[in-house]
């Protein structure tokens, strides 16, 4: 029986993986560079003791992918590049007071050289709104998608993994 050993070489590289989620043609932004910024900023941070290092980075990637899947399923006309990037960075400001505001401001600096001003403004608006529960008509579709994707990622198997991680870290 094959244990799956040696199968890592069969996994797609980062750009191939990202392209699987962007089925609508050419990607307008350099997601590989944006991913590197995200990993540098959040890849080893540990915002809470019971979460593994890099939780915010991995949670952001999952949130972005889930949001795109939701947009596809609902046939919503949203920019999937911006949606993914907003999901990736939505918790960037964790541990810095009102993290939605801190993250929205910080993203403007981090991606200044990689995105157009209008793209940065839209991503910043989504990050600022991702945990604000208002009347649905007051939020853009992309912000509602990130809210839903964020909540979806916080339930299910991720909670089980967090429980095991916390238990193991307690000795």
Overview of the molecule:
This protein is mostly helical and 171 residues long. Helix 3 runs antiparallel to helix 4. The N terminus is likely disordered.
In brief, what are we looking at here?
The chain has helices at 14-21, 31-42, 55-74, 80-89, 99-110, 117-129, 141-153, 157-169. It is an all-alpha fold. The protein is globular, with a radius of gyration of 17 Å.
Based on the model shown, name its key terms.
171 residues, mainly alpha, 8 helices, globular, disordered N terminus
Reconstruct the topology from this structure.
Layout: H1 14-21, H2 31-42, H3 55-74, H4 80-89, H5 99-110, H6 117-129, H7 141-153, H8 157-169
Helix pairs in contact: 2-4, 3-4, 3-7, 4-6, 5-6, 6-7
**Count of extended strands:** 0
Model regions low in confidence, pLDDT < 50 over at least 5 residues: 1-12, 20-27
Q: Oligomer, anyone?
A: single chain
- Which word captures the global form? globular
Strand content bin: under 5%
Sheet with the most strands? none
Gyration radius, to the nearest Å? 17 Å
Number of helices: 8
Q: What is the terminal separation in angstroms?
A: 34 Å
Mean pLDDT over the full residue set: 78
Give the helices and strands as they follow along the chain. HHHHHHHH
Structural class: mainly alpha
Tell me the helix content.
55-70%
């Amino acid at each position: 029986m094959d244990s799956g050993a040696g199968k890592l070489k069969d996994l797609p590289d980062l750009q191939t993986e990202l392209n699987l989620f962007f089925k609508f043609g050419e990607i307008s932004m350099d997601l590989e560079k944006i991913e590197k910024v995200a990993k540098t900023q959040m890849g080893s941070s540990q915002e809470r003791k019971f979460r593994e290092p890099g939780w915010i980075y991995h949670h952001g990637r999952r949130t972005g992918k889930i949001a795109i899947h939701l947009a596809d399923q609902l046939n919503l006309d949203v920019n999937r590049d911006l949606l993914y990037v907003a999901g990736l960075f939505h918790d960037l400001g964790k541990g810095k007071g009102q993290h939605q505001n801190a993250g929205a401001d910080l993203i403007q600096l981090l991606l200044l050289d990689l995105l157009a001003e209008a793209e940065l403004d839209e991503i910043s608006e989504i990050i600022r709104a991702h945990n604000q529960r208002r009347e649905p008509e007051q939020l853009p579709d992309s912000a509602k998608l990130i809210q839903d994707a964020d909540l979806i990622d916080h339930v299910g198997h991720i909670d089980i993994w967090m429980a095991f991680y916390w238990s193991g870290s307690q000795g």
